[in-house]
Structures are given as C-alpha cells and as structure tokens.
Specification:
By secondary structure, the chain is of the alpha+beta class. Helix content is 28%, strand content 23%. The chain is built from 13 helices and 22 strands. The protein has a 7-stranded mixed beta sheet. The radius of gyration is 24 Å and the shape is globular.
Length: 520
C-alpha cells in the first residue's frame, strides 16, 4: 500500500526526481529498485536556517504497486439553455464560479460584465500604461476575469474555513492551469497564463447554454416591495430577474452609490491602505535566503512581515516576487497601484503592498457620506496622488530611507511602473497619522529583515484597493441581502471574500443557496 512521508531535503534534491528517489530510499532503508514511484503531494520552502531546505510531503509506491496518475476532469456540466435563468453581475472569479456551479445544478446563468473580454482588455491596459488614458469600464480591475486576471492570479488563501479550496484549484487545473498549483504552499498561475484559462471558462459557460454579455454596464437594479425585479443596462435595456448575484468586485463604486441612492442597507467597513514598495529581487533573495546568489534550485524569494505599530497592524500584502507594479485606477483623476508577476516570476524587481489597517473612526471627516464614508476616504488619497503626480498616471514616489527622514528624493531610478514616477514627499498623499505609522513601521521592518530598509527600495503611492471599504450585508443562512429579497451580494465587492480562491468559493456558495430556493 502506498506510504505517505514528510521530509526535508536540499533544494537540488527536491528539483531532481532521481536524487529524490535515492534520498528517500536511504531514508526508509529501501533500495532504489524497490521504489516504484514517488509522487509529491505538497511542497514548501523553509528558509529559517542558513541551510535552506524544501519541505515535501510525498506518496511512495513500492515495487508491484501500480501508480495511476490522477486525472482531473471537469464536472458533468448540463445543457441549461432551456433552464431557469439567474442573473450574475460581474465576470470575476465570484461571478464565473457562480455561473459554473449554477450549470452544474441545472440552472442557466446570464453573466453581465461591464468590461471587455480578456483579449479586448489588453488595448485598454496599454492605453493606461503608455497614454495615461483610463477606461472606466475596461482596466486592470474591470473586465473578464476581474482584477486577478491581469494582476497575478495568486491562489493562496488562509480562508480554508470558508469552503473547499481544493475543489477550486482542481477546477482551475481542469481548465488548463498547471497541476503544480495543487502542490505548492503558495500557488500562483501568472498574468501571462490566466487569461487563456478565463477564456476557456467563458467558452464552457456558453457551450452549456449560459450567456456572457460583455461591455454591458448595469445602471439600475429594479426593486419593488423590497424584492429584485430585474436590471437596467446603460443601453436602456431591462432584463427581468428575481434572482440576482451581485459580484461586481471591490472597485465598482457606482454600484455602491446606486444601492445607497435606493436606500439599500450598506455598512462602512474597515480596509487597509499604504504604499507599494519595490526592491531589487536580488536584494530580497540575499535577505531571505542569506546568500549572495540564489542559484538555480530556489524560486525568487517572497517575504511576509506583520508588525503592530501604534496599535495598528502594518503588513505586507499581495507580495510579488519577480514582479511588476501596475496602474490600477478605475476612473480619470486618480492614481492607484497594484502588483503582479508572470508565471516564471523572472522580472528583476520584487514588489509588495505595505499597508496599515484602518478603523471606522478614521472615516470621521467623511461621516456625512454614511456607509460610503470609507469609500470617500479612499478616493481622497487616490485623487491627491493624481494631483501630486502632475494629473497623469505617473505615480508619487520616494526612496524608502528618504521617506523615513521626511526628505524628498533627489532622483528616482526607473521602476517597473510603466507610466513613470514623480518624486514627492510621500507624507503629502496620506493623513498625518498614516504617514507617521508608515515611517515607524519601515524602521521596524528593517530590524526584522536586515537590509530591507534601504534607499534602493522605491515607494509608490497609494496601494488603496486591498479590499472593499463597503459591506453589502446578507443573511448568514440564506445569503440573501438582509433587506432585499432575491439579491445575493457576493465576493470581494460585498465584503465576503479576499482574493481569487475565496471569491470563487463565495460565488459557488451563492449559487448553491439560489438552487436550494429554486429546486427545493
């Protein structure tokens, strides 16, 4: 019977199947001939000691035991062209996985997306990078696949209590992702590979009788007697529906404003805000791996830091080894940053959001906006950054040590942020209390990671779309909105997820709840 084994090996052993098999044979005192096969189930890197090790969980097949590779296949999706319809607003991970789950359950999804398909989005990303033109419906946040499509495809989540993470990863593999995402401790698809997977998901939805409508922005949700009746698009078309999954993502401010104007109950929600810090990847490698040269057997090093500064958490967020900083504004007149990595993570720089947790009392200057106070607080910094950077998509930037010393950097080297940088005193972007926490926090980070606090590191501001500043409350049992029957707030935009995997899980859960009502 196959045997599971946990072990630590040198990186070069983990990378070579023959060396690994020899190592395991010696470990369990079995000849290499008797080992039929080794299957790696989980892999992570332990860089806490000077000698870096790779943690492996392997399944050992002995001589005479037949190894049959696991074949991951798609569920038996039904043809739902004539089935009852459910409207989904948003084609991000929450919306797409809700659509797949509905099909699996015999219901017809109609996915309505304000942006373009994955290929069409590329022209608009080029326009914001090179011409500083922001398309409000097609950008790094809006369009097929949502924000994750062109900002990395990170799949790591701590939210295992929310649902079946493995199911989501296996579905992604069935749609073309590398099986490695089932093994790695911090799985990642890569911006260069994710668009094709998203396209294949859409084609499956359509092949099964569902619909996907692009460049169709929702301008109104028809509500009568506290019950959803349908939606209205920017073309003036009305689509009748009494079951509506709202999966619009954390940046669809017009949806929050629409709901607020209709007196739909919303809540202000804390989020986090800060900067995106970029270091040379070689410097992060040397700090994390304690070596002059990373070598061929280790991946570009990530990092994760959490500190308590002035009673608030300050932490790294969405860290991108071998990555790029991207312009993620969704409206003209604002600057927003985010980061991504290609699948090989082979760029020369590493970047990470370094953010501070906010509290509801921070929104007090904007309390007249009610549940949208946090949204207005967020806007104020993004708009200030735009003005400071010359009213373009150039980003306010400062060397890290200079920032801690209140000193405008005399020069900013070229960074991975394509629209360019403008040297400013970063404290002008943020309220004073946030600037002070950031300054103290970077000093503390430098004590934990020797060499991290350096003027080789360039800060870009702001990193402001970490999560939604608004929650659309729902019933914990039915997943319906607490006030509006038939409205199912979902994913990051509703305040119930954070990242691709947790949003996908939440989308599936909403679909299941709707099926319970429609198919009791």
């Amino acid at each position: 019977m196959p045997q599971e084994l946990l072990l630590q090996v040198a990186p070069e052993v983990a990378a070579d199947p023959k060396l690994l098999q020899e190592h395991v044979g010696k470990l369990i005192q079995v000849s290499a001939v008797e080992l039929q096969n080794l299957v790696i189930l989980k892999r992570s890197i332990d860089a806490r000691q000077k000698a870096i090790k790779v943690n492996l969980k392997v399944l050992i097949y002995f001589q005479g035991e037949k190894y049959k590779p696991q074949k991951i296949e798609l569920p038996d999706y039904k043809n739902v062209s004539q089935a009852q319809e459910v409207i989904i607003i948003g084609a991000g991970p929450a919306g797409l996985f809700a659509a797949l789950q509905l099909i699996e359950l015999g219901l017809k999804p109609i996915v309505i997306e304000r942006g373009k398909d994955v290929r069409g989005r590329r022209r608009d990303l080029k326009a914001i990078n090179l011409e500083h033109i922001v398309n409000e419906d097609s950008n790094y946040c809006f369009g097929e696949g949502g924000a994750g499509t062109y900002s990395d495809g990170k799949l790591y989540t701590r939210s295992k209590k929310r649902g079946d993470v493995t199911r989501i990863l296996e579905l992604l593999v069935a749609f073309g992702a590398s099986p490695e995402i089932l093994i790695e401790a911090h799985p990642h698809i890569g911006t260069n590979k994710l668009p094709q997977i998203i396209q294949d998901i859409r084609e499956k939805i359509i092949a099964c009788g569902g619909q996907v409508l692009f460049e169709t922005r929702v301008t109104d949700i028809v509500i009568k007697n506290n019950e959803v009746q349908g939606i209205v698009t920017q073309k003036g078309e009305t689509i009748v529906a009494n079951k509506l999954i709202l999966a619009t993502g954390h940046s669809a401010r017009d949806i929050y404003e629409l709901l607020d104007s209709k007196q739909v109950f919303l809540e202000a929600k804390p989020f986090a805000i800060g900067v995106r810090a970029e270091h040379p990847q070689a410097l992060i490698d040397s700090i994390q791996y304690n070596c002059d040269y990373r070598g061929d057997y280790l991946p570009p090093a990530p990092y994760s830091i959490v500190k308590q500064i002035g009673g608030r958490g300050m932490y790294s967020f969405c860290m991108c080894p071998g990555g790029v900083i991207a312009p993620c504004a969704t409206s003209p007149g604002e600057v927003v940053t985010n980061g991504w990595s290609p699948s090989k993570r082979d760029q020369a720089t590493a970047n990470s959001g370094i953010v501070i947790e906010l509290k509801l009392e921070d929104y007090k200057p904007y309390e007249k906006f009610g549940a949208l106070a946090g949204l207005e607080f967020q806007k104020s910094m993004e708009q200030k950054a735009w003005h400071l950077a010359g009213e373009t998509q150039r980003v306010p930037a400062q060397r890290m040590v200079d920032f801690t010393q209140h000193k405008v950097s005399s020069d900013i080297p070229k960074t991975s942020y394509v629209p360019g940088t403008t040297s400013v005193e970063m404290g002008e972007v943020f309220p004073g209390f946030l600037s002070q926490i950031l300054r103290e926090g970077f000093s503390e980070f430098g004590k934990t990671m020797k060499g991290y606090l350096t003027n080789e590191a360039i800060l870009h501001a702001p990193e402001s779309r970490t999560s939604s500043p608004v929650r659309i409350p729902r019933n914990l049992e039915t997943f319906e909105h607490v006030q509006i029957k038939g409205l199912y707030p979902c994913g990051e935009g509703a305040g119930y997820a954070g990242g691709i995997v947790s949003a996908a899980i939440d989308g599936e859960k909403c679909a299941l709840k709707i099926a319970e009502v429609l198919q009791p």
